[in-house]
Amino acid sequence: MDAPGKTTDYDSAYHRLFSQPAMVQDLIERFLPPEIAAELLPEQLHRVNAKLHAEALEQRDGDVVYRVGLRSGGAAWLLLMLEFQSRADRWMALRVMTYAGLLWQQWIAQEKPGRGEALPPIFPVVLYNGAEPWRAAPRVSALLDLPSEHPVAPWQPEAMYYLIDEARISSAALDARDGLCALLIRLEQCTTPEELRSLVELLIERLVDDHHAELRRSFTAFLLEVLRKRGLPPPSEQINELVEVKTMLEQTVQRWIDERGEQSLQQGLQQGLQQGELRALERLCRKRLGRHLTAEEQQRLAAQVEVMGVDATMDLLLESNATQLERLLATE
Asked: Which one of 15, 73, 228, 326 has the lowest number of neighbouring Cβ atoms within 10 Å?
C-alpha cells in the first residue's frame, strides 16, 4: 500500500478529473443535497488557485477549490477534498476548519474588501473512495470532549463537511444519478470485463463533442490506472483517447480469454478489488498494533477474510483491542 500522503499515478489521474469543471458541475447537480444544488449556479464555476499552506498543514494534491455563483446573489467557495487513503482521516473536520480560515485570509489579502463586505461562504465536500467505511466525526464539536451544556461549549469554533462515501453508494443510487461522476464510481467498482467495456462505450458516447477533448484525455489517464490496478497488462503503445482504450481493452480481454479463459479474467478483475480491501485491513491492524504484520499474520488475516468476508472482518478488528487483535492474528 502507498504510504499516507504519497501521491500515486492513480491519485493524480483522479485529481485531474476533478480539475475539469464539467466533473464538478455533475457532482453539484447529482450528488450534493438538493437544497445546496438548487442554490449553486454550476454554470458560474471557476477554479481557484488556493494556497492553503500553514506551518502544521501541508496542502495535498487532493484538495481542489472552486468559486461558484449563488442563485441568491454573490458567490461561494466549493472546497473539494479528494480522499485517496484506505481509511478515514479522524481529524478531517479540523482540517476543513483550518482550510476555511486560510481561504478567507487569502481572500482578504487579495481582494482587500471594504468595510461593508462580508466573507464569502464555503461549502466543504469530502469525496472518499477508500475500502473501509468512513467513520470520522463530521464536525469539529464531535472531536471535543465537552458536553453541549457546558458553559464554554458555545464559544468553541465549529466547522463541518459533506461526505460522499463512494463505496457505500448502491447501484440503484448510481442509476438514479446517471452522469459522469456515477460513471467514474462504476469504473472503480466494476468487476467484470463486460461491465468495463460497457462503461467505456458509455463514456465515449457522453464525451463525443469537441469541447470535451480535455475531459476525454483525463478519463483516458484514469482508465489506464484502473486497468493497471486490476492487473491487466499495460498498453504497448501510448494511449491518449477513450476510443484507443476501448480498442486496447477489447484486444487485451480477447487475449486473456484466449490464454486463460473468461473465468480467469473475471477473477483477475475481482482480485484487484479484493487485494485493495485486504491492504486496507492490514493497514488498520498496523495502526491498532503500532507495527507491521508478519507474513504469517497477513496470511491469517487473509484466511479470516475468506471465512467471514471483508465487512465482518473489519467490524471485528474495530471492536478488538490490541491484546485481542494479537490473539486473533496468532490463531492458527
From this structure: 73
